[in-house]
Design goal:
873 residues, alpha+beta, ten-stranded mixed β-sheet, 25 helices
Length: 873
């Protein structure tokens, strides 16, 4: 009870001081509320969009008691309660599953009713050409199908001649009242628009069973089952034995014990990735450090304002413990209020952002999910950060000299020698850990991240020494800057947390920025273009008429571009005949390309075609002479020795049931491609093709010229109308994720740095009010206070940013080794084994622009005049 009584009086003092210093209290509330708000909002949104097995069951099974799925050749299934963990047994050689309602009734030992569903894809005709869309055959009018789809316009199909489409497909042409034609299939009448309750499909058409032709295999079918009661775990296992995968709402809500789950499924269930847990723990620790460092200056100033009251308490017999309790009571009061406020605002923000975030995802969100255990943990995190941030000021306040305070003297004690020594030790351990993590081939990222925390903590302990050194060298600096530097060095309990917060922020941004930029540099440097920059190819046509249609479409969509026909050896002249060619030079086999933008790996011509093959200009004349003499031009990504090439041939003709093999050896000129892995193996003259007796045909249309985005989309859809494909070489394109990461890093670093610097500056100005009034009394101009305020902001931001860059370079450079030293899937000649790219623009903005911007903002918003105060000694 004595403890509670002591805390009651401390909380009364804290409440009185919080009301008296409303501005400082609001700052503390904001700094603690914002992280709690952000994490709460993220937690709610993540769980809302992560739809679990038991959430939104109506989307999966409608109103049925179970969804029973059969697949061809699957004879037996082992599954967990959630069929996402299922192993199928069987194969083409096994018996076909009996996928009937009678088989389901026999397995469940009771009669059931079921609704048939088939899923697949079909190709439909659009105004621009053809498009592949998802197709579902299901009677949407049935009771068991309720909840799977929502009717938005029109009505549901009543006959096989009617279908409904989703909004994405309706926007592309076949809307209500129009005809939808399936390629090589029927034409149906569109009578409505429906929306899937599960996800936003890019294109979807639905009709009654038998209307779209996707339910032709009777052994591959889904059944929505009305079992006249719950389908229990024993029923699921019985259906598994006849080759069915089962989604049972009852089993998902009442899962079996681990011992009842088949061992092969139980053992294959993946747990949480240890790396994910490690990274999450590191993020939590870094966030806690950041909040503590940002809130620390506010509590330090609050403790300084309380020092006279604490001195009176000490002179009246108060113990250091009681003095610490008075300072900590402010953190308890404001931290608890900020945690509750952040929790409430975070839930409200998540609800407000839900429609906006839904537009960014194809999967629809589940029920608004509040995990109270996690949310209360987040609130406790904010409360703990406030208490930890106030502990050091409380401890220093309990060690103050009451006589010196009552006499009007102030100033922090001299830094102890052991603090910078401990900082150097932690910084050394951080550097050593980063170097060790850089040398590891696996798991190095986690070690580097942990080392970064040690380096940041070591830097925090070294900041008092840095400030003291700056105070000594500031003799010849301008008055405003000298005043700000020396005041920062003298009041380290207020300045060190602010500088450390900026340093920690900049260190994290720099480390992540270097790692992300280096990874992007590796992707950019190892990118191997398929074509020359700006050019495009059309492939896939098989008849002269189709090639003519593609050529007309190219001229129509790209005025001024003349399509060039590329001829090559046709490796698939018919649906039943296939040509396989092999190439070797000097007895060494040559590997083929993974991509064929020209439709064939063996181009045919009496001279080199003018397409972008990556052949250097100096080698084209020699290559043309080789082709004119009946030789072969071999393209390679490395130097190959040999002047003779052998082309092997194998033709398989299923219609005649025979295979023909042949080969020819001719003179060869090997050219090293500048595109890395060549996009064609060789260029052969017509005479070699005649010797091999292989068909030569048009295999591609080459388009040289810029292809605008709208023309590219239209041309691609028209090409799809004749089973053709369009490829446009845009060069390496930075991914959206890369750009988003850079933007988030810059904005996050700017917000945290500006927030920390502005907070520390205004708190410092509040604390230095009497000194500024003295300056005004001895004749300083009104502008001097603004200059001093700007200098405070500049010193805090610049010192913190410079220290943060130095610390951030260590884990940033280290993490670039495990990120970029992995072998590329498509290696480029001369590619480096390690890539390092420093985002100088991002770093320069943090080190130069942001401190200057902060100083300008503070200088313009600070009051130029202060009322004179009387100093009482």
């Amino acid at each position: 009870m004595r403890i509670l009584a002591g805390w009651a009086s401390a909380l009364r003092i804290a409440r009185r001081e919080a009301r008296r210093a409303r501005g400082r209290s609001v700052l503390v509330l904001v700094m603690i509320t914002l992280p709690v708000l952000g994490v709460t909002c993220a937690d709610v949104l993540v769980h809302t969009f992560n739809v679990g097995p038991t959430e939104a069951l109506g989307r999966r099974v409608g109103t049925a008691d179970a969804l029973v799925s059969f697949h061809a050749y699957v004879t037996r299934v082992s599954q967990a309660a959630d069929p996402a963990q299922a192993l199928a047994q069987g194969g083409p050689g096994g018996r076909q599953p009996v996928a009937t309602v009678a088989a389901i009734s026999a397995a469940l030992v009771r009669p059931v009713r079921a609704l048939e569903r088939h899923e697949g894809s079909v190709r439909v005709i659009t105004p621009k050409g053809r498009a592949d869309v998802d197709a579902t055959e299901l009677d949407l009018r049935a009771r068991l199908a309720r909840g799977l789809f929502e009717l938005q316009q029109g009505r549901l199909p009543r006959t096989r001649d009617e279908v409904v489409v989703n909004p994405a497909l309706a926007e592309r042409g076949p809307g209500i009242g129009s005809e939808l034609t399936v390629v090589d299939g029927p034409t149906r009448h569109v009578v409505g628009i429906v929306r899937s309750t599960t996800s936003k499909e890019p294109g979807q058409v639905l009709g009654l069973p038998g209307s779209l032709g996707v339910g032709q295999d009777p052994h591959d079918v889904d059944w929505l089952v009305d079992a006249h009661g719950p389908v229990r775990w024993s029923d699921v296992r019985a259906l598994n034995r006849i080759g069915a995968v089962v989604v049972s709402p009852y089993v998902l809500r009442h899962p079996p014990s681990p011992a009842q789950v088949p061992p092969n499924v139980r053992d294959s269930a993946g747990g949480t990735d240890p790396a994910v847990v490690t990274v999450a723990a590191l993020v939590v620790v870094m966030a806690l450090i950041e909040v503590v460092l940002l809130a620390g200056p506010a509590f330090a100033v609050g403790a300084r304002l309380l020092q006279r009251s604490l001195a009176l308490v000490a002179s009246s017999g108060g113990t250091p413990r009681q003095m610490r309790r008075i300072v900590l009571a402010t953190a308890v009061l404001l931290g608890g209020l900020a945690a509750a406020l952040g929790l409430a605002l975070g839930i409200g923000l998540a609800a407000a952002l839900l429609p906006l975030v839904q537009r960014m995802f194809t999967q629809y969100a589940g029920p608004f999910d509040l995990r109270w255990r996690e949310l209360l943990g987040i609130a406790a995190f904010g409360f703990a950060s406030a208490v930890i941030a106030a502990y050091v000021p409380a401890w220093l306040a309990s060690r103050q000299d009451p006589v010196a305070v009552l006499a009007g003297r102030r100033g922090d004690p001299r830094p102890r020698v052991r603090s910078p020594l401990a900082g150097l030790a932690l910084l050394g351990l951080g550097v050593a850990g980063a170097v060790l993590g850089a040398r590891r081939t696996s798991g190095g990222e986690n070690l580097i991240a942990g080392s970064a925390i040690l380096a940041v903590l070591g830097t925090v302990l070294l900041i008092p020494v840095v400030l003291a050194m700056l105070g000594r060298v500031a003799r010849r600096w301008p008055l405003s800057l000298r005043f700000a530097v020396r005041d920062a060095a003298r009041h380290r309990t207020r300045t060190v947390p602010a500088v450390a917060a900026v340093a920690a922020t900049v260190a994290g941004v720099v480390a992540f920025g270097i790692g992300q930029s280096s990874d992007e540099a590796q992707n950019r440097e190892t990118y191997s273009p398929l074509l020359a920059m700006g050019s495009a190819t059309l492939t896939g046509a098989t008849t002269p008429r189709e090639w003519a249609d593609l050529s007309d479409a190219a001229r129509r969509e790209l005025p001024g571009v003349q399509p060039l026909r590329v001829r090559g050896i046709d490796e698939s002249p018919s649906k039943r005949t296939y040509v396989s060619l092999t190439l070797s030079v000097g007895g060494h086999p040559m590997s083929g390309s993974y991509s064929q933008p020209y439709g064939s790996e063996f181009l045919v011509g009496s001279r080199l075609p003018p397409v972008g093959l990556g052949i250097p200009a100096g080698a084209r004349a020699a290559a043309d002479r080789t082709l004119a003499r009946g030789g072969v031009v071999v393209l390679s990504d490395h130097r190959v020795h040999g002047r003779r090439a052998r082309i092997g041939l194998e033709v398989s003709d299923a219609s005649e049931g025979v295979n023909r093999t042949a080969g020819v050896t001719v003179a060869a000129t090997v050219v090293t491609s500048t595109h890395g892995l060549p996009r064609a193996q060789a260029v052969v003259p017509p005479s070699v093709a005649r010797k091999l007796r292989v068909p030569v045909a048009t295999t591609a249309l080459w388009l040289l010229g810029p292809v605008p985005g709208t023309a590219e989309q239209n041309l691609a859809e028209e090409a799809n109308g004749v089973d053709g494909q369009l490829y446009v070489e845009h060069g390496y394109q930075s991914t959206d994720e890369s750009r988003i990461v850079q933007l988030v890093l810059g904005v996050l670093g700017a917000v945290l740095m500006l927030g920390g610097t502005l907070t520390a500056t205004f708190l410092a100005l509040s604390d230095a009010r009497s000194d500024l009034a003295t300056l005004s009394a001895v004749g300083a101009s009104p502008r001097m206070r603004r200059r001093v305020a700007a200098a405070y902001a500049g010193v805090t931001g610049l010192v913190g940013a410079l220290l943060g860059v130095l610390v951030g370079f260590v884990p940033g450079i280290a993490v670039s080794f495990p990120l970029t030293s992995r072998a590329s899937a498509a290696p480029v000649p001369g590619a480096a084994g390690h890539y390092l790219d420093v985002p100088w623009l991002l770093i320069g903005s943090l080190v130069v622009l942001l401190p200057l911007l902060t100083a300008l903002v503070v200088g313009l918003t600070s009051r130029a005049r202060l009322p004179l105060v009387a100093r009482v000694d």
